[in-house]
Amino acid sequence: MPRIPAKKTSEAGLFLKLVYRIAGRRFGAVPEPMAVVAHHPALLRTSVVHELLAERASKKIPANVRELAVYRVATRIGCSWCVDFGTMLQKHDGLDIERLKQIDAYATSPAFSHQERLALAYADAMSSDRVTVTDEQVAELEREFGRDGVLELTYQIALENSRARMNSALGIADQGFTSGDACRVPLP
């Protein structure tokens, strides 16, 4: 149970009810982080717009690379909600979620490509207590993905660090997106 309870639909105004309805259709349930932030309407609007714009802008690197890097951050920070939701998103994108079980061994596992290993190592370097990214690491990422790709990857990893740390601080735990218990979202 989160440290701040989710705002109920019965407490919601017209705008929030619309947001909840759209989120429910898209994800099968209202994401709990959204329902918690709903207590602060200006932050909710900011968050929704930011997430939609970031999603729309992130098209430079392959989805599998981006989603794995974001997932890695969630596992490093220990955000069970982010792991749950991220797994569901990968499943719906048609990505192989079975290999997520090997994420801790990505450096040696044949389940991950060279590009994915680079992105996962970068996610690790950006998500430790102290950022340990090196010039060489960024140069290799730029050779692989281009400058726009590095910026996109950096942005997405930083964004997931923010999400995961906020959810963890507020005690927001997994919601059952991958189990189907809370969200029966049909595969596209």
From TrEMBL:
Lineage summary: Bacteria, Bacillati, Actinomycetota, Actinomycetes, Pseudonocardiales
Gene3D superfamilies: AhpD-like (1.20.1290.10)
Organism from which the protein derives: Amycolatopsis mediterranei (strain S699) (Nocardia mediterranei)
Name by which UniProt lists this protein: Transposase
Signal peptide residues on this chain, from the entry's feature table: none
GO molecular function (one): peroxiredoxin activity
Any Pfam family hit: CMD
Residue ranges of every copy of the Carboxymuconolactone decarboxylase-like domain listed in the record: 56-124
